[in-house]
Amino acid sequence: MRTCISLFLSILIGGTCWSFAHANPVYTVTGVAIGSRVQFASESYQEYRCGASEMFDGFTLCVKRTNETEQRGSFVAYDGMLHSGDGTVVYVSRYQDPAYWRDDDVEEDIAYYSRELGEAPTLLKMPTRNGLPNGIIATWGKVALEPVDRESQTILAAGENPKIGALIDFLGNFEVSIKNNLPVYRVTGRAGFIWAASWDSNGRGTFRMMAINPSELPTPGNLKPLNQVEANHSVSNPLASFAQKSLDEYVGVGFFISAEGHILTNARIVSDCQSIASSHGRHIEELGVDETSDLALLLSSQKPNGWASFRGASDPRVADTVMAIGFPTGTISALTGLGDEQRMMRIGSPIQLDNGGSPLLDRSGNVVGIVARRLNPIQIADMTSGISENINFAVSLKTIKSFLDSHAVPYVLKDSTEMKSYSDIAAEAMRYTVPLECIR
Q1: Fewer CB within 10 Å, N- or C-terminus of the chain?
Q2: Threshold 0.90, pTM exceeds
Q3: Within a 10 A sphere around the Cβ of 94, how many other Cβ atoms?
């Protein structure tokens, strides 16, 4: 199922349609690299149908359709490319319909591209929908996926183009995705590579990949900027608006974990609430609660601008540095709670009473737990025959994943070894962390 993305230097430099505009690009599709420059007179370029882009002024959109056959059947491939007036490629893609997937093809493809790119992917799994196939999106590099706004969703549902930039979804059909309450994303950020696939029980589906540098593109005319209220909120601490709340209203913290608006928090924060309010979303719906694990799943009526990623394959370890939002860093002191409770882990981070439900983050900014509760010294003495001033707890990553899987909630897994500054981690986390108000 794999289409090669490595740099074909003999093709790119060897007198056909491509030559480098500057240093060797990294992200390519079918041998065409972003940052490379087309040769307009070449036969290869003439195979494309090209015209002025309706979305990006000064850019040219080129598309080529081919009918192809493989061992499992025939398919149609659409190769797309967007280049500037001097021929510099800023976007190149391939869409295949249908695509044919064997049992392990999806995992093998993602692993292959990760090896080729030398990077760990960020994965988005499609929410489960009855009657629809499975789907997954993987990204590498500095690209970011931003859910389209409601007005654009309405346009997409009508089968039209909202003209807000490059888009990606799980199914390869924006209209079907919107009508089935599945996310469609606008591609933002900087240079990177995106891979998306869908497949049914028979292994038949779609396949799309793109190499793109959104930072080289002008802002589409139809893309509406944040209003001043939204702009002020996006750069401020989301906890600040709840600083003066009445003691009659319990305040806790939650954080977005999906583009659909799912929020993860502690069960005790939403226990016995008549309603739940937040600074983000006019309506907060409770989807599931596990009091034993102290986890609750909520759904916001408003889609978020960002959401957390969870640590992927590598498990948290004792002595790993962690931080909770708004408080100093600490370490994981034990991988179990008191009495070897498997759902919890002990942390040496100072925790305040109103910090329950906030994400516990590693040095890459990925979630490794969720702050659960703080025991006072008297409680600890009753359980351990000792006194300690600094035993705090977080729900373990394994417990969180099991809880989210049981509710068929999509979430992002990310294996990253990049060490970020504490200020960068905090700034990123503030984008998806929200205060929650339990009104009793």
Answers
A1: C
A2: no
A3: 19
